[in-house]
Amino acid sequence: MTDNSDEIHTVNSSNVYSSTGTGTINTLNLNGYAITVLMTGSDRVWFACSPVGDNGQAQVSWVYEWDGEQENNILRKYPVQTQGILAGVMVNEVPHLLDVRGRLLAFRGADFAEIARFPLGQDELLWGVGQAILRNRAVHPRGMIYNGDEILININNRIETDTGDPAYTSKFAGGIWAYNADNGLYHKNSCSYVAIGSTGTSITDYGQHRVERVGPIIEYRPNNKAAADGGSIIWSASFFADDTATATSGITGIFTDDTPDNTQKWGYFVTSQLFASSAVDTWQKIYTIYKALLSSTDKIVVKYRTEEASKTEAICSWDSPSRLLTSTDVSGYAEGDEVQVIQGKGGGKSAHIIGITSHGGGYTIDLDDEFLGVDGSCIAIFDKWVKAGEITQANDKEQWKGLTLMEQNTSPWIQLKVCMQFTGANEIYKHRIINKPLIKE
Q: Which residues contact 278 (CB under 8 A, 6 or more apart)?
């Protein structure tokens, strides 16, 4: 593509550049649109055109199908109802696109249909509306790949605002997301301070929720790579090193995944709301069935809630591995409530309050778990998840555990948040919830 973002020129096997004639597109006259995605198949070139500049709020983008040879020979043109298309990738000769509404779209012969969607609000859009190809966007034009098994997307979690400045959504984390037909769309990898193979106190975080900028993603499979080497993909990104959001506080780097799986990690999943068998149920117990844990530091923490509550975001500083200080008003929280660090040292992990006291116009928060290698400032989210209990290697004899729910357990629905601190290929097989109808019909 050219700097004009409305022309395509090719280079042949002899490295000869074509400015006109065979292998070029140079008379599109896009009028308020720019080429934002370019994909190549075995006998087709696909490119997406998005509204830019003053035309940035237009509700239609276009996808063009070209034979890749004859000058300006557009075979077909498809409308897509969206304010912009951010990235795309070919999957077995089928073009797949990601738009600013967070929709993953697949071509189905005559149009593009949604197959998955990032968890955005109805009126929320990913960062990049009206921006041309080289501007900073939620996904880089080369930020999607297909590795033969699934689509991988390097995405930040910035969204559009009325002021024109980006905001960060708490509805999903930045980093590497993956899509396959069996598991749908899920978060797979985070950006982190931690070097591959780190163990013990060298760990300082378990992944940054907020990612400021993102670049391309590629597969990493050199012929001379040893089996023990970490990394099957490489991506570029930047995030903030502490509680601030300035360029001087950021960390920019090249990141990779941990294929040897010998670094301790913390991850979690949240279920959808599970509704009562009657109008209202008493939720009594949760059974967790899992594979034997491999390390004495491995654990599974099961949490639940039966009502939604607003969250509080707080700038904090680490006083010790299990103590935070903040001047943010967190007086609405008490023993048992959850604290999840989303930015800075300790990022990616959550714990629960065992004590909260006021001091000097602020608060001291003591936590029920330690965060390794932490110092400085961070940003944390205070929430109302109730801890049902945790499972450690001491419970491995039977590889299941029942956790009794003692409070806040009568409701039309229940929702689980299951956190896992694992090193190696540990697994959770399933959860079973025991409930009793409160209203007999």
A: 437, 438, 439, 440, 441
Q: Which phi and psi angles does 226 have, rounded to 5°?
A: -75, 155
Element (H, E) at 383: strand 377-383
Q: Where are the domains of the chain?
A: 8-189, 267-437
Structure tokens at 49: 């055109």
* CB neighbourhood size of 110 (10 A): 8
337: number of Cβ within 10 Å: 20
Those residues with Cβ within 8 angstroms of residue 163's Cβ, 6 or more apart along the chain or in another chain = none
Mean pLDDT of the chain, nearest integer: 89
pLDDT at 240 over 60: yes
pTM above 0.70, yes or no: yes
CB-based burial of residue 195 (10 Å sphere; 0-12 exposed, 13-18 middle, 19+ buried)?
exposed
- Can you read off the two tokens belonging to residue 394? 């001491």
Identify the residue with better confidence: 131 or 269. Answer: 269
Rounded to 5 degrees, φ, ψ at 376 are: 70, -155
122: left (phi over 0), alpha (psi -120 to 50) or beta: alpha
Tell me the pLDDT tens digit for each residue of 125-142. Answer: 999 888 765 557 899 999
Place of tokens 């009126």: 123
Give the Cα separation of 83 and 48 in Å (integer). Answer: 12
Q: What is the pLDDT of residue 269?
A: 94
Q: Which of 379, 297, 301 is nearest to 340 (CA)?
A: 379
